[in-house]
Amino acid sequence: MLDPKPYLEKDFALHADMLDALLDEETKVIYSEEDGVMLRIGRKGPFAISAKTAEAMEKMAKLIESERYMAVIRPLRFMPEFVAIKGVPEEMMPCYQAAYPKKEPVFEPVVPGIEIKPLTEEQLPFVRKHYDDDEGYMKSRIEYGMLGAFDEEGNCAGFVGFHGEGSMGLLKVLPEYRRRGIGIALEARNLNRRLSEGRIPFGHVVVGNENSMGLQRKIGMEFSENIVSWVFK
């Protein structure tokens, strides 16, 4: 197999998640040739696939032996080849990938009357109420390090964190606190944490979510031209 980095570095925004995953010693390089790269992120994380040709997508899809899986594939135009091998997924989520291309931290705006600090397990019911997901998963995200924005009375106005494969996300600002700059303050603090850890800040924005794309651009994120897609089965 070839070193995957030269292939991935040719399109940083499209492959930021894969380049970041290579910094994790538990990530496994499954396929790396001139026509594509395939990783298993972390010990039991999703597969990440980038194909240069339809034939390469077919080859890499065959390397997913389990019937049940999560994967993020790119580019979207090779989805028919993936489906031809693995069958129709239970869920698809086409996204633009956002990536921060610099080493310098971003400016963290101060929001009057708001303090940003780590969440604790005490906030788990609140987080689950406003971000519907599995309890065990959300607990693990809080343990990894989610941030909350708290007003002067100690009420949580919003939160942000990291998904299991390393993408920035879980961003939520309650309606009554919006249009005060809380979202960008949370996102900037989150991004700078990732930089301080020597990692690559990246995230996925579902196609059509223009508000989220605008926020990401404000803090200096760049978007991939090609669409990536999460697939779940």
Strand content: 25-35%
Computed over alpha carbons, the radius of gyration is 18 Å
Structural class: alpha+beta
- Cα shape: globular
Largest sheet: 8 strands, mixed
Number of helices: 8
Overall helicity? 25-40%
Whole-number mean pLDDT: 96
Domain module tally: 2
Q: Distance between termini?
A: 28 Å
The residue ranges in which pLDDT falls below 50 over 5 or more consecutive positions are none
Number of strands: 12
Helix and strand element order: HHEEEHEHEEHHEEEHEHEE
Question: How would you describe this protein?
Answer:
- The chain has 233 residues and is an alpha+beta fold.
- It has 2 domains: 4-96; 115-199, 3-Layer(aba) Sandwich (Aminopeptidase), CATH 3.40.630.
- It has 8 helices and 12 strands.
- Strands 1, 2, 3, 4, 5, 10, 11 and 12 form an 8-stranded mixed sheet that branches. A 4-stranded antiparallel sheet has the order 6-7-8-9, sandwiched between helices.
- Helix 3 (54-61) runs parallel beside helix 4 (79-86).
- The longest helix has 15 residues, at 182-196.
- The two termini are 28 Å apart.
- 37% of the residues are buried.
